[in-house]
Design a protein that fits this description.
With 545 residues, the chain is of the alpha/beta class. Helices cover 26% and strands 18% of the residues. The protein contains 15 helices and 22 strands. The strands form 6 sheets. The protein has a 6-stranded parallel beta sheet with strand order 15-22-21-20-18-19. Strands 8, 9, 12, 13 and 14 form a 5-stranded antiparallel beta sheet that branches. The protein has a 4-stranded antiparallel beta sheet with strand order 5-6-11-10.
């Protein structure tokens, strides 16, 4: 249990500082969270206002300020609990689709800079930061808490730009939505269906927008043909990855009360969708009706439990077409499990066969050496990033002669782009990919052009990153492979696919919520096969005869 002397619930609005701004912190109540007791009153904490340089990107009136909403206590007087549930459901959905909201106050602060002492006094200190507000509702309703950041000199921060990695474990395991409010505080929003005791594992990975920084202009050129293996020291000592536990790793627990009907709001949400809708959507965005796998849910006893059971829209094949899986080693692992596991019938009965296309930034054909006569990986070659080469590699699969109307292309391009390619260039790739798929669909109807994409296209998001599991997470080559950048690249690609009417399977939440994380303590990206078994089942149900 937790108790708050003088407890009040809270929310967000455009005048957020008037509800729980820094002035209120000096008189905030005692917080008792299980065995963790902290005085929220900070005798030695002062309020620090943002510098002129950062004021522009942290203005609460900025059109990109993140998810400013009416306070929960005000909403409860005007709306019923289901209306409040829908509001928070939509905020959770928007957080994975609105890339500008993912960036938040970092929108104009993504250019890499050489490390220096400027702004070091504004970095967040997770050991001194604290939880200011709790709003834990009964099972089946959205709950939240707010983290207030503090600088190393005990000054309450009023600027955003931090990246908090948070996971919740109890009867179920899930990854909450962390919202940067742009004022030095961070809302942690989550939907727990199973009541009971929970623990929040909280780490600060980046501060001052360092988690979103793009590679410097020379980055790709100093790497090998895939833009990796840059020499250590090239970033001149830049080590922004903090991996810092909240308050030194002290235990943070809370209790979710039981409910007479913990499914009532989700059931009401499903009933609110017109029965005439071809594919029921709960994304709160009329332009995004293409999720074939919503992705949100939780893990219970090694079983994935989605909040909303997927409504499979069947598109049966009877030994027709080829199923292509295009992507990196994560996609390869998924393909291997799909073709050898319990749903291998997809490749034997639904399609005439399945093929994998191994791709990082470019096609991986002839990339690996034997390690004896040739290096295991190519050496740096002074070649810069080539957008046209990326697109031409994709076209080889799109226009493969065996890619007919019954074929399916499941494609992901994400993690290796986040590691090596700036966000502007990634957006260009996604935009052109969407254009190729959509233009080809309309073009072939008119001209039956053989040089066009004829199959069904499904976008698969990138999985969650366990970056802290790198054997040496501070090596320069790993600098830009950050979880905030993966979230950002996912958001842009997913929203672009939605607008274009492209099917989307979002595997980020199921991987981020998995309690054991990646398959080993030294592997930051690969998951055990069973983690995505439900995605395999979905594809089988979609296309099986």
């Amino acid at each position: 249990m937790f108790t708050l002397s003088g407890y009040r619930s809270f929310g967000l609005d455009d005048e957020i500082s008037s509800d729980y701004g820094s002035d209120d912190l000096e008189n905030s109540p005692q917080v008792n969270i299980g065995s963790w007791i902290r005085e929220a009153t900070r005798v030695n904490v002062t309020v620090r206002h943002e510098s002129k340089q950062r004021r522009k990107t942290n203005n609460p009136s900025d059109e990109n300020s993140h998810n400013k909403e009416l306070p929960v206590q005000n909403l409860s007087r005007k709306y019923n609990t289901f209306d409040i549930f829908k509001r928070d459901w939509c905020r959770m959905q928007r957080a994975r689709l609105e890339w500008k909201e993912v960036l938040g106050p970092c929108l104009n602060s993504t250019a890499w800079e050489e490390p220096n002492s400027h702004g070091i006094n504004q970095i967040s200190d997770p050991g001194k930061s604290f939880i200011t507000h709790w709003d834990i509702r009964q099972a089946g309703e959205f709950s939240r808490f707010v983290i207030q950041t503090v600088s190393p000199s005990n000054e309450v921060k009023t600027i955003g730009g931090d990246s908090w990695r948070i996971h919740l474990h109890g009867v179920s395991s899930l990854a909450p939505t962390v919202l940067d409010l742009g004022n030095g505080s961070y809302e942690v929003l989550f939907l727990i269906i199973e009541d009971g005791e929970y623990e929040a594992k909280i780490f600060l990975d980046y501060s001052l927008c360092h988690g979103f920084k793009d590679p410097p202009p020379f980055w790709f050129k100093k790497g090998n043909p895939q833009g990796k293996n840059q020499p250590d020291g090239i970033l001149k000592g830049d080590r922004p990855f903090l991996i810092a536990p909240f308050r030194g790793g002290e235990k943070v627990t809370f209790h979710v009360p039981s409910s007479n009907n913990n499914q009532r709001h989700i059931d009401a949400l499903m009933m609110a969708v017109p029965s005439s809708t071809k594919r029921p959507q709960y994304t709160c965005d009329s332009s995004c009706g293409t999720f074939v796998w919503d992705g949100f849910g939780r893990w219970i006893n090694a079983q994935w439990k989605p909040y909303i059971k997927e409504d499979v829209q069947k598109d049966r094949r009877t030994g027709e077409g080829i199923f292509f899986a295009f992507g990196d080693s994560v996609s390869n692992t998924f393909f291997s499990s799909l073709t050898s596991g319990p749903y291998s019938g997809l490749c034997k009965m639904a399609f005439t066969g399945c093929r994998v296309v191994y791709h990082w930034v470019y096609d991986m054909t002839r990339y690996w050496g034997d390690g004896v006569k040739s290096p295991r990986e190519p050496l740096p070659d002074e070649q810069d990033y080539d957008h046209e080469r990326v697109i031409n590699d994709v076209k080889k699969t799109l226009y493969n002669p065996v890619m007919n109307e019954k074929s399916v292309l499941l494609l992901n391009m994400g993690i290796h782009f986040a590691a090596a390619v700036n966000f502007t260039n990634y957006r260009r790739v996604i935009d052109q990919l969407v254009s190729l798929v959509n233009e080809d669909n309309s073009h072939r109807k008119l001209f039956n052009d053989t040089n066009s994409f004829k199959g069904r296209f499904i976008w698969k998001t990138s999985t969650a990153l366990n970056r802290e599991r790198f054997p040496n997470p501070h090596k320069d080559v790993r600098r830009f492979l950050t979880f905030p950048r993966v979230l950002l690249y996912n958001a842009y690609a997913t929203s672009a696919m939605c607008r274009a009417g492209v099917d989307v399977i979002d595997v980020y939440p199921i991987s981020d919520s998995y309690p054991a994380g990646t398959m080993s303590q030294s592997d930051p990206v690969h998951y055990a096969n069973h983690v995505f078994r439900d995605v395999e089942a979905l594809l089988y149900k979609m296309f099986a005869p």
